[in-house]
């Protein structure tokens, strides 16, 4: 086998360093996050990311960061900011649209879209769906720039002798794993899991192949273990959201094993957190409580009140499933008290979704499980109104839950209107979990079909289901 050429050493990005001026890396990272919020973007920028940019380890930012940097420095190109042209790094610029992209349908008009666009939701739906395919293709190639040898190991025949590994695993490979995790999270926040899950098997295999290669420094090893574990959790979540619960359970177990082998408490807490969520959704509330409590024991070492708040909510969800009202209320109170302590430097990067809207939404789920429909509606309304427009999938989720709570609480007309808004979002969000919830709401609404608003929603829902079935039959990307 011909040895692979060594990648060129990274060149410091002096142009970007000049733009930082007198700000420290942490202060500049904070300004990047503020700029992202101004345009409805979501980036988990920290001092280490800024350091990697300035050292030249990140030759070209991902699309989310590119949009933020262009907002911060209007009129400047990536080259002006000291980055390499995207086509020279990613290798996709010279090719035309892929067949997958050519099949992507454009946005479908529907009632309620103008109201959603007022919140910044639904703008550029067609472009967003195309981005799934474009960025997933990049995700599949994420390891090829610096980790071609590891990728070869990843696709070796099972039980066969893997090819000879060339070179050490280093910074480029660790960055590739970390960026793959970030890319998945950003796309999932906007579009849901169904269009993403199939594209993540190869990057996940490659990440664990990097670990198996075994030729890396201790600092790189820590990043690879953490990155591979977080990637397993992200892929597990995509499986969870797309209805593949057994696959999700397997991926979470893989992440938990990785955390324990490497002694990574933060990764272990995250794996237990998602395991608790999965157990609740799978109808195993006692397991959900046990996993959430295990996560809290691990997280006590991490000094993150927001993480402990989320884990208390996971426990509350399990207790609600057990109809333990007293225990659920105590867990909810603990979650709100911890949340009120505010953000902390120790908050994990993956928790960027956890704000006041998520707090309200998870509490709404607890009251719904306990049959307290009025309280469930109150909190679900807050969850929808407070949600950052970036988290389109969560807006669709909480809107669907609000519709379900409204019909259970005896307000079918209001439920139909709300369910109609959720239906519009399902043209943009591909989540089997949310789709099934909306189907359940439609089923419960059918006895109220004489109501004009209910009849209108049921007709639209039936049309949507027909389109989904037609898309599935032809193998095209459908609206669900």
TrEMBL record:
Superkingdom of source: Bacteria
SUPFAM superfamilies: TPR-like
Region (Disordered): 88-118
InterPro entries: TPR-like_helical_dom_sf
This protein's name: Tetratricopeptide repeat protein
């Amino acid at each position: 086998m011909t040895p692979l050429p060594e990648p060129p050493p990274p060149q410091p990005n002096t142009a970007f360093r000049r733009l930082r001026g007198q700000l420290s890396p942490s202060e500049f990272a904070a300004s990047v996050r503020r700029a992202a919020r101004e345009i409805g973007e979501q980036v988990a920028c920290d001092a280490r990311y800024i350091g990697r940019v300035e050292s030249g380890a990140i030759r070209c930012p991902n699309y989310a960061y590119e949009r933020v940097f262009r907002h911060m420095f209007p009129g400047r190109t990536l080259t002006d900011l000291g980055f390499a042209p995207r086509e020279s790094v990613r290798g996709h610029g010279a090719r035309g649209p892929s067949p997958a992209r050519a099949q992507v349908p454009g946005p479908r008009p529907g009632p309620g879209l103008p109201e959603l666009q007022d919140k910044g939701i639904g703008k550029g739906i067609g472009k967003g769906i195309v981005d799934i395919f474009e960025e997933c293709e990049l995700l599949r190639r994420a390891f090829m720039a610096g980790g071609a040898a590891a990728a070869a190991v990843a696709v070796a025949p099972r039980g066969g002798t893997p090819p000879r590994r060339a070179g050490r695993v280093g910074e480029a490979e660790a960055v590739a794993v970390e960026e793959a995790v970030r890319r998945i999270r950003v796309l999932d926040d906007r579009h849901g899991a169904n269009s993403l899950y199939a594209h993540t098997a190869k990057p996940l295999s490659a990440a664990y192949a990097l670990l198996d290669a075994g030729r890396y420094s201790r600092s790189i090893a820590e990043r690879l273990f953490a990155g591979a574990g977080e990637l397993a959790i992200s892929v597990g979540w995509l499986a969870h959201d797309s209805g593949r619960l057994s696959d999700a359970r397997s991926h979470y177990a893989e992440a938990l094993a990785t955390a324990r082998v490497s002694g990574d408490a933060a990764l272990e807490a995250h794996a237990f957190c998602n395991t608790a969520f999965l157990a609740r959704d799978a109808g195993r509330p006692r397991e959900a409580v046990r996993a959430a409590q295990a996560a809290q024991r691990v997280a006590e070492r991490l000094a993150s009140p927001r993480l402990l708040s989320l884990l208390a909510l996971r426990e509350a969800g399990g207790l609600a499933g057990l109809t333990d009202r007293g225990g659920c209320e105590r867990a909810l109170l603990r979650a709100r008290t911890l949340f009120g302590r505010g953000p902390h430097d120790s908050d994990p990067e993956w928790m960027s979704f956890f704000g006041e809207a998520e707090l309200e939404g998870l509490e709404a789920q607890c009251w719904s499980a306990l049959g307290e429909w009025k309280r469930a509606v109150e909190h679900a309304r807050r969850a929808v109104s407070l949600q950052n427009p970036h988290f389109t999938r969560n807006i669709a989720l909480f809107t669907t839950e609000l519709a379900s709570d409204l019909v259970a609480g005896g307000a079918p007309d209001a439920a139909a209107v709300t369910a109609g808004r959720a239906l519009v979002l399902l043209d943009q969000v591909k989540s089997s979990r949310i789709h099934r919830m909306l189907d359940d709401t439609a089923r419960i609404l059918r006895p109220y079909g004489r109501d004009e608003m209910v009849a209108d929603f049921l007709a639209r829902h039936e049309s949507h289901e027909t389109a989904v079935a037609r898309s599935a039959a032809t193998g095209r990307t459908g609206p669900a």
